[in-house]
Amino acid sequence: MSETLHRQHKAHIDNLLSAYRSLMAQYDYDSIALYSGHASPHYGDDQMPNFQAFGHFVHWVPLVEAEHSWLVVHRDKRPTLYLYAPNDFWHLPTVLPEEPWVAEFDIQLCTDAFTPSLNDNTAIIGNMATLRECEDALPNGQANPETLTHALDELRMIKSDYEITCLREANRLAMAGHEAAHAAFAGACCELDIQLAYLAASRQRESHVPYANIIGMNQHAGVLHYQHYDTSAPTKRYSLLVDAGRRFRGYSADITRTHLGPDAPALFETLISAMYAVKDRLIAQLAPGVDFVALHEKMHHELAEVLIDHGLFRGSRETAVAEGVTRAFCPHGLGHSLGVQVHDVAGLRTASGEPAPAPEKHPALRLTRTLTPGMVVTIEPGLYFIPMLLTPLRNTDLPINWTLVDQLMPCGGIRVEDNIAITLDGFDNLTP
Ligand code: GLY
Ligand code: MN
Ligand code: MN
């Protein structure tokens, strides 16, 4: 695999270079300088939060932990990578990996946090607020010019073969974690131990995950971004929802699985199967030309069918969707673009950079694009029993079967999520 990967990485860099140069010619810049960023200590403390380098920097250079570093892409000479490598006996000094991509750049190892000298005709892309913290004066150039930034974001929307290889490998590694998490749940472990089993099997430390793993048992499965890990197992085990990822060379997997606990009502088991089937039916529709907003609306029709077929709603599919019943059972979007960021850039813009906001009724949808080959998206239908969203419906005459809803409340909810590349004639599911 590594020979193919390195060949693909070189082609990826070659393509990025020519795309950046076209943009420099179009918008009249001499160079584009990408700042990787840096972590700042907690207030009043000397300890640092976890750092991850800026997405546009990682788009070129697979060094997710490179702080205070710059990649300057020139119109007329090789790109220069200024990699921060302090003389530091407290930490292991930065070393360049022995990989072929390093030959594509002129590389300077910098012992100080250093800003390259840039001319006025440079577009500087990165976090200017953090840059100001360690520089008396900002470098010359234009900071984050909007039109160019949108065009660079758009380059990240369409993945190269290299990026798809990375996303597939991230998925493979994450799935080993998901299998271990499921086994730990079967062994009656608590949330924290399931998280530790996930991290061990997916071979990563917690500071390297692409997003905080969501490991929720029982009602926690209905907290969309549940952020804690209980340290003791509950006496009853109804459900486990694991939404957990893995990075590979900066690229993120974002996979969710929901598992049945021994104490769940039988209906919950059939609902889990129904939601896996919904996921697969939605994925089967992925192809170039598909409008993601329309597919999100189809998810709501699918959810209405599930509610009706399982006796949770005794009205029509149209009523369930029109009256917001399906939105109360699933308040998030169908999915999003995936790349070096788990919620990748440019999802709410057109290909030419115009705003394409989420529809008013679906404000949490993060992708409103028409699909094209090379996009990588998540498909993550959910069905939850969230008291805050369902309670207001109890005072209506909507034909919801509250007896069943109350039986399912302790299960929290269901989400299943795969990562899919759009191909020339369909899709390629990257999730094993
Ligand atoms: N893990 C966050 C999400 O699925 O979007
Ligand atoms: Mn997701
Ligand atoms: Mn997820």
TrEMBL record:
Chain ranges of the Xaa-Pro dipeptidase N-terminal domain: 9-152
Annotated Gene Ontology cellular component terms: cytosol
PROSITE patterns, A to Z: PROLINE_PEPTIDASE
Gene Ontology molecular-function annotations: aminopeptidase activity; metal ion binding; metalloexopeptidase activity; phosphoric triester hydrolase activity; proline dipeptidase activity
InterPro entries tied to this protein: Creatin/AminoP/Spt16_N (IPR029149), Creatinase/aminopeptidase-like (IPR036005), PepQ_N (IPR048819), Pept_M24 (IPR000994), Peptidase_M24B_aminopep-P_CS (IPR001131), X-Pro_dipept-like (IPR052433), X_Pro_dipept (IPR022846)
Binding site for Mn(2+) 1: 254, 336, 380, 417
Cofactor: Mn(2+)
Binding locations of Mn(2+) 2: 243, 254, 417
Family: Belongs to the peptidase M24B family. Bacterial-type prolidase subfamily.
Classification via NCBIfam families: PRK13607.1
PANTHER family to which the protein is assigned, alphabetical: XAA-PRO AMINOPEPTIDASE 3 (PTHR43226), XAA-PRO DIPEPTIDASE (PTHR43226:SF8)
Record-given protein name: Xaa-Pro dipeptidase
UniProt organism field: Vreelandella salicampi
Name of the gene: pepQ
